[in-house]
Amino acid sequence: MTAHTPPTPPFRDPRLPFAKRIDDLLSRLTREEKTAFLHQFAPAVERLGIAAFRTGQEALHGVAWMGPATVFPQAVGLGATWNPELVRRVGDAVSKEVRAMRAKDDRVGLNVWAPTVNLLRHPLWGRNEEGYSEDPKLTSAIATAYTHGLRGDHPTYWRTAPVLKHWLAHNNETDRSTTSSSVRPRVLHEYDLRAFRETVEAGAVAGVMPAYNLVNGRPNHVSPYLGEHLRSWTDEDLLVCSDAGAPSNLVDSEHYFDTHEEATAASLVAGVDSFTDHGTDSSQMTGRLRGALERGLLTETDLDTAVRRQLSVRFRLGEFDPEYDPHDATSEFDSPGHRALAQEAAEQAVVLLKNDGVLPLAPDTRIAVVGLLADECKLDWYSGTLIHRSTPLEGLYERFGAERVEFAEGVDRVRLKTSGGAFLRVPVAADAADEVRGAEGALDPALLAGRTDLPPLTTDATGTELALADWGEGVLTLRAPDGRYLSVAEDGRVRASADQPGGWVVQETFSLEPHGNGHLLKHLGTGRHVCVSAEGVKVAEEDPEVFELVVAERGEDAVARAAAEADVVVVVAGNDPHINGRETEDRTTLRLPEHQERLLRAARAANPATVLALVSAYPYAVDPATLPAVLWTAHGGQAAGTALARVLAGDVSPAGRLPQTWYAGDADLPGLLDYDVVGARQTYLYFEGTPLFPFGHGLSYSSFAYDGLTTRGGDGTLHVSFRVTNTGDVTADEVAQLYARAVDPCVPRPRRELLDHRRVSLAPGAVAELSFEVPLTAFAFWDVAQDRWRVEPGAYELLAGASSEDVRLRTTVTLEGEPTLPRAVLAGGLAAAGFDEQSGIEIVDRTKVSGDAVTPVGGSTGELVYRDCDFGRGITGVTVEVTGEGTVEVSLDGGPALAVLSAAGPASGPYDYVSLGASVAAAGVHDVRLRLRGPLRLAHVGFSG
């Protein structure tokens, strides 16, 4: 008999649409198999020939965590290029390396968690390095470019599947899993949602990741906005992946739900499709899902919805059609093209902040390069392992010749003397292999352990001279002469064992605490003090050693010597991305760390021709007055040093632009947890002070003239054009920026708002004719009175120039729109969160599922204003929906209280609202003012008559 070949199941038939194939595959999966698919590590289904799948491959600026890969500039540096086409090519290169690495290591995933589109609202945010800009338009332009590169250009099959991080209004690491961002409707729509929306609508996004925080009192992992907004922006099935550990946070830290079954069910129903929790162990999450099903909190249809979204991504990635997947054979990795692109990106990210003519440097310049970052190529938490490495010192050696470059790191050279008179000694470990943290790759690098193969520190009569660097706020690193940093492994021993500070909990940082006539040396990773015992040097909770810090040389002395012998000094200052400002840790100040300030002062005193090159993940407040030149670049990846040297030498004219405002000092900053960019006048959009350097700022070695600004309307679009001419004598890039502002708005509007931009390269004398098509919807604002977008009719000023403040051309256009109308409050009343102004108020959740309410901050007193409320021919009563205890005082136009409504006592729960009423007489149009006192929540105000 002839054996019959089993028929090809429909889900394996590439001739069928993905939707039909997914329907077929879903019908073949058991409920248990579908449940298992909802964990990050979805198991194989061998009976159907389906492979295991995991969500989440970090790829923010190169393939991260999985070993060596091309390392591009940090995301904020890519944002500083203002060059979407360059960033698209970076995304293309990263996705090709993902595919090439996966071919050799199936731990590498194709569902990439990048880019981060959180807006850089506050420069003290620890994860500033991960975002692109404080502006939603620029952020979405760069993010869209990166996602298109990650996706690839095949119409059907995606090279990788990008997931945007972190939904929503997430700009603080301090208590990040328990704090709530109070986001009024205008900020929600005009600011926070906008960057996500425009990127999703561009069509190369596979999903999003909710953030750890709460928004308006409700955790992002149960946000109704996932359904109300996110999924309405595209017809594609979007895969929503939880952040790591966040599902458990709903119960364990946020206490939002009583049981994990309730929390898991609520997340799934809200739109979370894949749970990242408990590492590779899926049993906890699948157990919770089974429990939710058994309790009737979920149905199998809910499982099907989430699994369908995951399968949609997997089909698009070509998993089920390997013979048709055009990306399956991709092998480009660490290619000459990728190396050149890394250098190009690093060069384009350099921002020249000030230049009095000292730059570019002449070829015969004698240079002193000094500073804690002068010979460093720093990585961050989301970097891959370097294959190639270029520091500023190495770049200057290469460009100017080692004989013309002097180097002084500026560390303090110290020995640590014990109370018994001995010194800490680093034993020689001649046979120890050099190891780079993370070189072998790890699904969770937070679990990487420190080295124990090296001998712990001991003591002797002479000891070892250590290089001490103070990174700010007393956080120190100590480095041995062989370049290894003092670190603490799981056995508590202190060793010189780390190639760099790093890890989820950094084990290479210490602090010196005054104690008697000496200091205690505290290890910050464990919180324990260093002690000396017969077994060697270790950290322990008892018997701390009292050390005398014996200084052999101050860093500023070495810097001054080098600076005095040079024509020009380049001070390279900034941050280590694993210290003082990183994921889990916000900064506390804009100031440059004091150690680096000392070095800068010493260099400047020894040589007035001192250039400050800031290499950092965020802005600093520095005084540029006495410096002839200042530059900034983010940590620039593997080619950072070469790029900086080429800019200093004039081989490349700098054209990076600031993607966020650089404030002059801490006093200019709002509170870290104040998310009201409108009311608190935040970012370049609303800031009314004088910045140190404005949004969009960046200088060139050439000069540019702007002229010929014209506008033309039609078809719902404003056509804007102008010319840019290179009037200098070198070829250079210019970033032309187009802004708008409403001349006489009915509500507070941005001082100016970016409409579009263009980065162009021009030879001397060349002219670029730039044209922009601006949809009239770009001039809209969120009208809280009508709860929708509205273009206000009237005059709008268009501004073209080289930054948000360097305006070269301007004109005014008059736009038609919808007239401003009073709030029609008789029919619908007032949604409490739909205020025009507030003081002392935060927005909270009306219910656990949807809706907003308001409450006084800290249960104290708060005020709300609702402008131009139309009471028609008259009202006779007012009602409020409240829960809790306190009073609501109602007045009109700032007059006396017309009614005081009191909630007599605590309700049985925060969502148990009662309706209170009082008599009020009013007619016509008035501003309604409410004063709230006490720990009550107000959801709605109604009027009758």
Report the strand count.
Answer: 49
Instruction: For the record, give the distance between the C-alpha atoms at the N and C termini, rounded to a whole number.
Output: 89 Å
Specify the helix fraction band.
10-25%
| Poorly predicted ranges | none
Q: What is the general shape?
A: globular
Radius of gyration over alpha carbons?
30 Å
Structural class: alpha+beta
- Percent of residues in beta strands: 25-35%
Mean pLDDT comes to 96
Task: Walk me through the structure.
The protein is of the alpha+beta class and 945 residues long. 20% of the residues lie in helices and 29% in strands. The strands form 13 sheets. Strands 14, 17, 18, 21, 22, 23, 24 and 25 form an eight-stranded antiparallel sheet that branches. Strands 11-28-27-26-12-13 form a six-stranded mixed sheet, sandwiched between helices. Strands 38, 40, 43, 45, 46 and 48 form a six-stranded mixed sheet that branches. The termini are far apart.
What tags apply to this protein structure?
29% strand; alpha+beta; 945 residues; 8-stranded antiparallel β-sheet; 20% helix
Describe, in short, the structure shown.
This protein is of the alpha+beta class and 945 residues long.
